[in-house]
Here is the input.
Amino acid sequence: MTASELIAQAGKGKALPGKNELIRHYQGKRLTPSQAIKAYCYDCSGYYDGGAGDCGVPTCPLYPYAPYSNVKAPKELLADKSKAKSRTGVKKRNIDRLNALLPGVEGY
Ligand code: SF4
Here is the structure.
């Protein structure tokens, strides 16, 4: 698909966050990281054809920054882990104990 075809295709999408940024990208213009995320989410969500809203994919690295994400900070994704840490008072030296309490949670 050529750039002009991509621009025409995106131009038919709903006028929502990311549309102009995606078109600017197809035009070869430089985007800021924030604009690039909006453009990518606009494309990823099928131009929000099914309606604007949270994509519901918290495993996506862009999710905290997506225009309609319910999570606005990456650390919120780790909220359970943070709560567990403060609730139990576990420090880094007790990694094994924490892993036993929270199987499947990585990063300690
Ligand atoms: S945050 Fe959602 S819409 Fe944006 S790129 Fe990830 S999965 Fe797609």
